[in-house]
Specification:
The chain is α/β, with parallel strands linked by helices. It has 17 helices and 18 strands. The longest helix is centred in the middle third of the chain and has 26 residues, at 190-215.
Length: 521
C-alpha cells in the first residue's frame, strides 16, 4: 500500500525532468570574457564613480559616445544608485542596443557588496528589457582587480537567472532569460577573470544544485528520494557511495537516526560518499531532515511552513563536495548525509526516552523538536571513528541562532583556532557572513542528562551554543571540527526559497585546504 501511495504521489507531481539534479540541464547563465574593441550585446552596462564622467578608455568608440551623452545630462553625478539609459543603432536588425550607465557613488567607498548589488540591478534591467545577451563593463578599481572579487562577481552573474519553477505553469515560466553575459574587466584584468571562471562556474553550479534539492517539496523529497538523488549525482562525479538503511543503522546502534525516523512511514537512512586518495581526510556532515513536524513536541502550524528546508545542511555539503570533485581538489573527501523525516506517529520517539548513539553515549530525550543533533551525533561519531582529520558540519539547527544573528549570517562553533581562521577567511572571500561563537565549558554542563549521559535540549537560553556543546560530545579527541548553524540563512530573507548559503564558503575553504595542506588563512 505504501509503495502504491508513493507511486501515486510521484504521478501527481509529474516526473522529475531528466538531468534536473545531475547538472545536464542548464542551471547557470553562460558567461565569458568580452573581446576588447567590440561588445556584441543587446544591453551594455557601464559603471562609473561619483563625479567621474569620463567613459572607460577601453570602451569602443560608439559606446563611449553613448556613455558621455548620459553622463552630460543635467543632474547626472554618478551618485550611488543613479542610472541612465540610451538606445543606439545595433548591428542586430531586430533591436537597438541599450547602453545603461550606473552610478556607484564615491570611489573611496566602494565595497564588493555594492558591486554585487549593481550586477543584480543590471541583470534585472536587462531581463525587463528582453535582452538575451548582456555585456558588463567593470570599473577600474583595486577591489575589482581582486581574485576573490572576480570569483564572487562571476558567481553572482552565473546565478542571476536561477529559478526553481519545476512545479509552475504559465507565462511567467515561459519568459525569455539571459542567454549569455560578457564581462569586460578593467585593462590588464582579462587574465585574472578568465583564470577564475572555472572555479566560479563549479561553485555557481553547486549553489544551484543545493537550492534545487533544498527547494524540493517534502511529498517528493523523502529520505530515500534524497539519498537516491545524492547517489546519482555522486556517481557522476567519481564518488563511491554506500547507504545504511534501517537494518544497517540498527546493527551499528545508530540510535539517534533511528529515533528521529521512527514516527514516519518514510524510513531513515544514512548515505556515505567517498572520493580521493591523496591529501587530508576531510569529513563533511550535513543535517538532512526532509520534513520536521517537531514530532510529539509538535511545532505550530506557522512553524512548520518552511520545514522542508530542514534538509538544507545535507544539500549544501553534498553540492560543495561535487564542486570539489569537479575542480579535482587533492583531498580525501568523505560526506555523511543522515536523512530522516520527523513526524508524529504511533511509534514516534517520546520525551523521556533514552537512546544510545553510535559512539555509545546515551541521550535522554527532553524535546523531540531538538531532533537534528541526534542525526548529527551518529554521523559525526562515525566520521571520527573512520579517521577524519578535519570535520565540518552544517545544519539548520536552532532558532537561537536566528535570535542572535537574524537572517544575515551563520554561527561558527569550533575549538580549533586554525580551522576557525580558515573558515572565516573563506566566508569573507565567498561573501557569506559567518560569526564565531563560544564553546564555553558551562555550555557542556547544561546538556548533561539526569538519567543518561546527555539530554538533547537545555532549553532556550544560549540554545545555539548548548546545541553545539551537545555535538562536541560526539567528536572524541578530534580538535579540528566545526559546526555551522545555518538556520537563519538557509532561506532568502529567512522565509523565501533556498539560498544555498554555505556552499560557496565550503568550496573556497576546501580549495584553500587543498592548496595549503592546512585550512589556514
Amino acid at each position: 500500500m505504501l509503495a502504491l501511495l508513493q507511486v501515486l504521489a510521484a504521478q501527481a507531481l509529474g516526473p522529475v525532468p531528466v538531468g534536473f539534479f545531475t547538472g545536464k540541464r542548464r542551471t547557470v547563465v553562460a558567461i565569458g570574457i568580452a573581446t576588447r574593441g567590440r561588445l556584441a550585446a543587446d544591453h551594455v552596462a557601464v559603471a562609473c564613480f561619483e563625479d567621474e564622467a569620463t567613459p572607460p578608455e577601453h570602451l569602443p568608440a560608439k559606446l563611449a559616445e553613448a556613455v558621455s551623452a548620459i553622463a552630460t545630462r543635467p543632474g547626472w553625478r554618478g551618485r550611488d544608485g543613479q542610472t541612465g539609459e540610451l538606445q543606439i543603432p545595433s548591428p542586430s536588425p531586430d533591436r537597438d542596443q541599450v547602453v545603461s550607465l550606473w552610478g556607484l557613488g564615491r570611489r573611496d567607498r566602494l565595497e564588493r557588496s555594492r558591486l554585487c548589488d549593481w550586477l543584480d540591478g543590471v541583470a534585472s534591467r536587462a531581463r525587463t528589457n528582453g535582452a538575451r545577451r548582456v555585456a558588463v563593463v567593470l570599473p577600474d578599481h583595486p577591489e575589482v582587480r581582486d581574485a576573490a572579487t572576480a570569483r564572487h562577481l562571476s558567481r553572482d552573474l552565473l546565478l542571476s537567472e536561477y529559478r526553481f519553477d519545476r512545479f509552475r505553469q504559465g507565462s511567467d515560466v515561459a519568459q525569455p532569460k539571459l542567454g549569455k553575459v560578457l564581462l569586460l574587466p578593467p585593462p590588464g584584468g582579462d587574465a585574472l577573470y578568465r583564470s577564475q571562471l572555472p572555479r566560479s562556474r563549479a561553485t555557481a553550479t553547486a549553489v544551484a544544485r543545493a537550492r534545487d534539492l533544498a527547494n524540493a517539496p517534502p511529498n517528493e523529497a523523502t529520505p530515500r528520494w534524497l539519498a537516491e538523488r545524492a547517489a546519482e549525482l555522486a556517481a557522476g562525479h567519481g564518488f563511491r557511495h554506500s547507504r545504511l538503511d534501517v537494518p544497517d543503522l540498527e546493527a551499528r546502534r545508530m540510535g539517534g537516526i533511528l529515533a528521529v525516523g521512527r514516527g514516519s512511514r518514510q524510513p531513515p537512512c544514512l548515505l556515505r560518499l567517498e572520493r580521493g586518495d591523496r591529501g587530508p581526510i576531510v569529513a563533511l556532515v550535513g543535517k538532512g531532515v526532509t520534513f520536521d513536524s517537531g514530532g510529539l513536541s509538535i511545532k505550530s502550524a506557522r512553524g512548520m511552513v518552511s520545514m522542508k528546508y530542514d534538509k538544507a545542511g545535507a544539500c549544501t555539503v553534498l553540492a560543495a563536495a561535487l564542486a570539489a570533485a569537479e575542480l579535482d581538489l587533492p583531498i580525501r573527501l568523505r560526506v555523511y548525509l543522515p536523512l530522516a523525516e520527523n513526524m508524529v506517529g504511533g511509534d514516534s520517539f517520546r520525551p523521556g526516552d533514552v537512546i544510545r548513539c553510535f559512539n555509545g553515549r546515551t541521550v535522554e530525550i527532553v524535546n523531540t523538536d531538538a531532533e537534528g543533533r541526534l542525526l548529527l551525533a551518529d554521523a559525526m561519531a562515525w566520521a571520527v571513528d573512520e579517521g577524519a582529520e578535519h570535520l565540518v558540519e552544517l545544519s539548520t539547527l536552532t532558532g537561537g541562532v536566528v535570535a542572535a544573528l537574524g537572517y544575515f549570517g551563520a554561527a561558527l562553533f569550533t575549538p580549533d583556532e586554525t580551522l576557525a581562521a580558515g573558515l572565516l577567511a573563506a566566508a569573507e572571500e565567498a561573501g557569506e557572513k559567518l560569526w564565531r561563537m563560544p564553546l564555553w565549558p558551562e555550555f557542556s554542563a547544561t546538556v548533561r542528562g539526569n538519567h543518561a549521559d546527555l539530554k538533547n535540549s537545555a532549553g532556550r537560553p544560549a540554545s545555539a551554543a548548548t546545541a553545539a556543546a551537545f555535538l562536541a560530545s560526539f567528536v572524541g579527541g578530534l580538535k579540528s571540527w566545526a559546526h555551522l548553524d545555518i538556520a537563519g540563512t538557509a532561506q532568502v530573507a529567512g522565509n523565501g526559497p533556498a539560498s544555498g548559503f554555505g556552499t560557496a564558503l565550503l568550496v573556497d575553504w576546501l580549495h584553500r585546504l587543498a592548496e595549503d595542506g592546512e585550512p589556514a588563512c
